[in-house]
Amino acid sequence: MKNIYTPRDISEWQQFIFLVKLAVEEDKLENLLEMLFTTDERNSFGLRVQIINALLNTDLPQREIQQQLRTSAATITRGSNMLKVVNPDIREWVSKKLNGKA
User: Fold this and answer.
1) Which residues of 26-56 are buried (b: 16+ CB within 10 A; e: fewer)?
2) Dist CA 30 CA 34 (whole Å)
3) What DSSP designation does 28 have?
4) Which domains does the chain have, with CATH numbers?
5) From the UniProt annotation, which stretches of this protein bind DNA (predicted)?
6) Cα separation, 71 vs 52, whole angstroms
């Protein structure tokens, strides 16, 4: 699988992942993410989840998804491009989780 994130320093990404894992274990994930991300960033993540869900689980053309979610074509295209390079196992896992099938 291609690395889809190229950090300035890999240890920064690993430290973030470490904190997220600890936050999950200690039931503090939401608090951690609220501290780390601005309201706009959190809204962007929510939109990305909606985009990925629509791309994975509907037969709608990208243009229609763009119009329904009121976002740019470039944003939809970025989501579509990520789905082409991400590990198929995680793509299937996300699809199942978003649709309550697992």
Assistant:
1) eeeeeebeeeeeeeeeeeeeeeeebbbbbbb
2) 6
3) -
4) 7-36 (no CATH), 39-101 (1.10.1270.10)
5) 62-85
6) 13
Tokens of 88: 């198929």
Identify whether the C-beta of residue 98 lies closer than 8 Å to the C-beta of residue 57: yes
How would DSSP label each residue in 50-76?
Answer: HHHHHHHH----HHHHHHHHT--HHHH
Neighbours of 66 (CB within 10 A): 19
- Helices (runs of H) and strands (runs of E) counted in the chain: 6, 0
Residues 6+ apart with CB under 8 A from 68: 54, 60
Q: Token pair of 9, please?
A: 């320093």
Locus of tokens 């503090």: 28
Query: How far, in Å, CA of 83 to CA of 101, rounded?
Result: 19
Which segment of 8-12, 14-18, 29-33, 68-72 scores lowest on mean pLDDT? 8-12
The predicted model scores a pTM of 0.80
| pLDDT value, residue 73 | 96
